[in-house]
Amino acid sequence: MTINCNGKLISLHQPKVMGILNLTPDSFYDGGKYKDDSSILHQVEKMINEGASFIDVGAYSTRPGAIEVDEHTELKRIVPIISIILKEFSEAIVSIDTFRSKVAIECISSGAAIINDISAGVQDQQMLNTVAQLNVPYIMMHTRGTPQNMQQQTNYDDVLKEVLLFFSERLSIAKSLGIKDIIIDPGFGFAKNLNQNYELLRQLEMMSFIEHPLLVGISRKSMIYKTLNTTADQALNGTTALHMVCLQKGAKILRVHDVKEAMECVKLHDQLNA
Predict the structure, then answer these.
(1) Of 77, 100, 170, 221, which residue is the catalytic one?
(2) Of 252, 255, 260, 267, catalytic
(3) What is the pLDDT of residue 29?
(4) pTM, whole model, 2 decimals?
(5) pLDDT at 42 exceeding the cut of 70
(6) Is 220 a catalytic residue?
(7) What phi-psi label fits residue 7: left (phi over 0), alpha (psi between -120 and 50 degrees) or beta?
C-alpha cells in the first residue's frame, strides 16, 4: 500500500484523491476547458490546494467513440505541459494518462512519476517492458477494444469474474517483468454497459483479493447521469454519493474532476472508520 513516486514514498493506507487534467478538446465533461498555460496552471493549483495527492494529465480522449489521436499530436499536447506544471509546482506528483510507451517515456523523462494506462499494456506491446525499465508506479485498467469500439464489446457472462481473470493475467506478466508498484482500475464505463457498471460496483470489495491498491474513476460518468436522467454537468452530487460507496468497498484512490468534494468524502470516510 506504499508507492514510490520519484523517490517520494506515498502511503495508500488512507485513501488519496487524483485530480484530472484533460488537455483534450473532446473529453466528455471538460473537453477544451484548459487551452492555455494560465488556465492549466490555475486548475493544477486549485486541485493541489484542495488536497489532490496526484495530478493525472491526459492528451487523448478515451470517452466512448472518441476520435483517434496520433502519437505525434498526443506528444505535442502533453510533454510541454508536464514541464510547465513541474516548473511551477515542483512537488506535484504527475500521472500520465496514456497507453503509448513512447508517450510514457517522454513524459517520465520530463518529470512525471506515474503511468496510467487504460489498456493494461494490451494496446502497446512495449508498454509493460517500458514501465519495468522506467521503474515507476503503474495503473492498469480493464477494458476491451479501443475507445472507438469498446461499447460494442460488452458481452460478458460474468463481468466481475472476467475482470478479475483479466487482472490475473496482466499482473502475472507485469510481475514477471519486475514491475513492483501496481494499482488496478476496474474501468467503469469502459466496454461495460450501465447494468454491468453497477454489477461491478456492487461487488467492488471482491477486488481486494487481487491484493493491489484499487483506483476508481467514476467522476461524472454516464453510469451516474443516465441513471439520474441528467447531464455530466449536473452529476456532482451523484458522483459524491458513489464515491463514498467506493471508499467503503476498499477504493484507495479516487480519480476525480472535483477534488474538494472528493476530499470531503475521504475525510468523512476516515472519521467513520477511525
Answers:
(1) 221
(2) 255
(3) 45
(4) 0.93
(5) yes
(6) no
(7) left
